[in-house]
Amino acid sequence: MDSIPVVELHDVSKIYPMPAGDVHALNHVNFSIHVGEFVAIMGPSGSGKSTLMNIIGCLDVPTSGIVKINGMSTSDMKDDELTIHRRDNIGFIFQKYNLISLLTAYENVEYPLILKYGRHDTTTRTADLLRMVGLTDAQMQHTPYELSGGQQQRVSIARALANDPTFLLCDEPTGNLDSKMSTQIMELLKDLHSKGRTIVMVTHNPATAEYADRIVIIRDGVIVNE
Amino acid sequence: MSEERKTLWQRLYSPIVLSLAIRNLKLNKFRTILSMIGIVIGVFAICAMGMIGAGFTEEMNSMISDTADTLTISPIGEKVIDGTTTTGFSAKDLRDIESAVKSVTNGYDMIPMYSSSKYVYIGKETTMTTLSGMDSEAINTLVTLTEGTLPRGSTNVIVGETFAEDNDLRIGSRITMLSSTGQEVTCRVVGIMESTGMMNFGFSTDSAVVGSIECYTAIVGDNHGLYDKVIVRAYDPTELTAIDNAIEKKMNGKEDKDSDDTVYILNSYEIMEIFDEIMSMSTIFTTIISGISLLVAAVAITNVMLMSVKERTREVGILRSIGTFRSQILQMFLYEAGMIGLIGSIIGTVLALMAAPLFLYGMIGSIEAMLSVGVLMYVPIGILIGLFVCLISGLYPAWKAANLNPVEAMSTD
Ligand SMILES: Nc1ncnc2c1ncn2[C@@H]1O[C@H](COP(=O)(O)OP(=O)(O)O)[C@@H](O)[C@H]1O
Ligand SMILES: [Mg+2]
């Protein structure tokens, strides 16, 4: 592939200093993701999958090594620039949904739009997104605690799509869901991929990994198999 | 809109962040109210004490400013005249005093007078008064008449406004006193003197009866022509202390006062200065107390805000991960602290506005001073101080929240 990768990691390490000794969550990782890819990251628990995702998503910085977004090194970017990058170009989907419990489903999805445009959504975008992921108009006014796990994950997908990002980062998106619900969520992601989005997904489940067109296996902070 | 082109206002005011702060305050109503109580009390204390102090000073100043230009000189040294021991100022004493005054300034009035306590019989009532005798020129300099004329002859007197009101006296009313020989002397009221007010350190007209020297002598006798009191009034009150010292030196032979003195000098300017000093000391004292209560409030708010940050760490992590700026997180907590401050200090100020008049009425019997600028100034001062204290208290917790690592914040429960 000769296009500039969406994200490149060069010799990236992440070390957590702990009283019992340093934890090497990532060990000299080289890795890149190109436009339009659907990558699944697999590996045992504690192998560094989430750490890798957080660094790819500019939520965390590596202890050493270089991370480049669209060819630009993140170490040269200010926190505000990285924040704008997360807001406009990345959609996060987490295992624990991570919705704001103070806000309704509708407000959760509207929030990134308000962040970007500084005012409430006067279009039907928020409602359209929620309908697309399968929420009824009544459910949109519910707070996260009034929704099932599957519904919450749908809301979080709608929120991830709010600012129409090109890049979706999913950390075990079906980890808390039963298999029927998992399939529905995966079909949604598959559909989003087919519409041109780049997706990186962490998963434990080989059946879920089937949806990806590239599988990366990580063990003890090292990528062992592509 | 690019981030760089956003105006300062757009950066400072994020409606979504504000609404999150409001929701959080409502969600934790009990905690919000608890933390507000501190600031309410603090602002109430600073406002109420400030208002009472300002109102009191205002009232006092209007009462004493007129009379802070007077020295009242009384004799204390004994004299033996014709075999009797007595006190009073002789003509030579008056000359000495006057020369001492002249050594400092020419801008003065000097009023020698006779004065003594007398029982007065008005109808069936008996009251005590101070009867003073002086010549009409002296009366003219010393007092202002609200009505009537100056007393002439031996049976005309003028009385103070308060004395007249208390005893139901008008022009033409009659009062009776006993002379030293036991005879009843009835005098006619020919004039009413304007009140010199409650805080009077010079000549007080309030319960005074003033007559001509002729009248006084007829009632009290002439005490070998010795005067009982001399009042010196300086046109420039700041010269009063210098005059005071000059008289001390001349009459008592030294500048500091002690028991061998021949005169005792009451300096109204010094009294006013002492009074001012007491007022400013009590202002400092009350400010310190209010300051302490505000400090306690500040600690309470910092504590509540730290709790809030701790509780919402996960939320902050999520907000940061989906593209909320550090500055917006900072704002969210400052809005929260600011709203506690604004509402708390408005309540505190309103309470102070209700309590201060009660105190003022109790202390000086008037709430007129409440409407003065010096008092009302405490309304904006109180609100601004409360707001400021809360924002400062919220600054550290807000800064802490803004600088949380998003990943670590999100993984807390
Ligand atoms: N904030 C942290 N502090 C200390 N150690 C951490 C922290 N986050 C992750 N780790 C450690 O780093 C390693 C990788 O963690 P993680 O990336 O979460 O693994 P995975 O997502 O594959 O289960 C683990 O050993 C974990 O204990
Ligand atoms: Mg993980």
General shape of chain A:
globular
Ends apart, CA distance between termini of chain A? 15 Å
What's the CATH H-level superfamily name of chain A? P-loop containing nucleotide triphosphate hydrolases
- How many separate structural domains of chain A? 1
Residues in helix, % of chain A: 25-40%
Taken as a percent bin, the fraction of beta residues of chain A is 25-35%
- Percent of residues in helices of chain B comes to 40-55%
Succession of helices and strands of chain A: EEEHEEHEHHHHEHEHEE
Please work out how many helical segments of chain A DSSP would assign. Answer: 8
**Strand-pairing-aware structural class of chain A:** alpha/beta
- The overall average pLDDT of chain B, rounded, is 85
CATH fold label of chain A: Rossmann fold
Strand content of chain B: 15-25%
Mean pLDDT score of chain A = 92
The greatest interface between two protein chains, and residues involved on each side, is: A-B, 30 and 28 residues
Instruction: Output the radius of gyration of chain B.
Output: 34 Å
Low-confidence stretches of chain B: none
Describe the overall structure.
The complex is a heterodimer of chains A (226) and B (413). In chain A, 34% of the residues lie in helices and 26% in strands. Chain A is of the alpha/beta class. Chain A has one domain: P-loop containing nucleotide triphosphate hydrolases (Rossmann fold, 3-Layer(aba) Sandwich), CATH 3.40.50. In chain A, strand 1 (7-16) and strand 2 form a beta hairpin. Chain A is globular, with a radius of gyration of 18 Å. Chain B has 413 residues and is an alpha+beta fold. Chain B has two domains: 3-63 and 274-410, no CATH class; 70-235, no CATH class. Chain B is built from 14 helices and twelve strands. In chain B, the strands form two sheets. In chain B, strands 1, 4, 5, 6, 7, 8, 9, 10, 11 and 12 form a ten-stranded mixed sheet that branches. Chain B has a two-stranded antiparallel ribbon with strand order 2-3. In chain B, a hairpin with a 2-residue loop joins strand 2 (79-81) and strand 3. Chain B is elongated, with a radius of gyration of 34 Å. The two termini of chain B are 36 Å apart. The A-B interface holds A 54, 57, 59-60, 79-80, 83-84, 86-88, 92, 94, 98-103, 111-112, 114-120, 159, 163 and B 1, 3, 6, 10, 14-16, 20, 23-24, 27, 314-315, 318-328, 405-407, 410. Residues 16, 18, 23, 25, 43, 45-51 of chain A line the site of adenosine-5'-diphosphate.
